[in-house]
Design a protein that fits this description.
Largest sheet: 6 strands, parallel
Radius of gyration: 19 Å
Strand order of the largest sheet: 5-4-1-6-7-8
Strand content: 15-25%
CATH topology of the largest domain: Rossmann fold
Number of helices: 11
Order of helices and strands: HEEHHHHHEHEHEHEHEEH
CATH architecture of the largest domain: 3-Layer(aba) Sandwich
CATH superfamily of the largest domain: HAD superfamily/HAD-like
Structural class: alpha/beta
Number of strands: 8
Shape: elongated
Length: 244
């Protein structure tokens, strides 16, 4: 079966919905789902290496599209073993990764914009649900969405960020489930974290939940067999968007 078939079938169901049916909703995570955080992590590592020159030969070997979930682990894999400097980098990373300035450096995964636009064209509400926090990352997120060519918040586009940086991502997202249910019917949901994808499927069992298999937190829980995996977001919607 084509990996894109579950998404296309979900869109067919949206297009054939009877009059008066609940409004369809498509939910998208941002980090490592629509956006690649590699460039952000690399920029942070380079900025820190300006202060700790021992890191430079290792940072110079990093490539944004081959970086994992943890830049410290990436450097250790290259042979950098100074634990004290890696601890300093971890503190620097935590102070900079979740900021407007650095979030704008993320790249867009191929096919992501076309996917979101195609789903939106069927009448789905676009709902960006992200673990980014509102106080520190809203402006940068808006600028990144606009620069990437994504639909921007408006009557049929919602951007929901955490109210505080400290709140745990999954706890925040599950709180939004009630809001989603009140808005209509979730027909599609895209995530990169297996735990989050599993919760979506349990909360919205009729939805097509897709795990974009990029990077995720260490020691993930087993993926529910009902969640569909997609290695890349490029699909038939790319050609359809180019021809429209």
């Amino acid at each position: 079966m084509s990996p894109h078939r579950p998404i296309l079938e979900a869109l067919d169901r949206v297009n054939s919905r009877p009059p008066g049916a609940s409004s369809p909703i498509a939910v998208y995570d941002l980090d490592s789902t629509l956006f690649c955080t590699g460039p952000r992590n690399l920029a942070i590592a380079r900025a820190f290496a300006e202060y700790r020159h021992q890191l430079r030969p290792f940072v110079d070997q990093l490539r944004p599209d081959h970086m994992g979930w943890n830049v410290m682990a990436d450097l250790e894999a290259l042979g950098f073993a100074d634990k004290a400097i890696l601890t300093e980098l971890r503190h620097f990373w935590r102070a900079t990764f979740f900021t407007d300035h650095f979030v704008k450096l993320d790249s867009v995964y191929p096919g992501a914009v076309e996917l979101v636009k195609t789903v939106r064209s069927t009448g789905c509400l676009t709902f960006y649900l992200t673990g980014r926090d509102d106080p520190g990352m809203r402006q940068g997120t808006l600028e990144a969405l606009e620069a990437g060519g994504f639909p921007l918040p408006g009557p049929d586009v919602v951007l929901r960020l955490k109210p505080t940086w400290e709140e745990e991502d999954l706890a925040f997202k599950t709180k939004v489930f009630d809001e989603l249910q009140a808005l209509g019917e979730v027909v599609l949901a895209f995530e990169n974290e297996p735990a989050n994808a599993n919760r979506f499927l349990r909360a919205f069992p009729s939805a097509t939940v897709v795990l974009h298999a990029t990077i995720h937190a260490p020691d993930p829980e087993p993926l529910d067999p009902g969640v569909h995996q997609l290695q890349a977001l490029s699909g038939p919607w790319v050609l359809a968007t180019e021809l429209s």
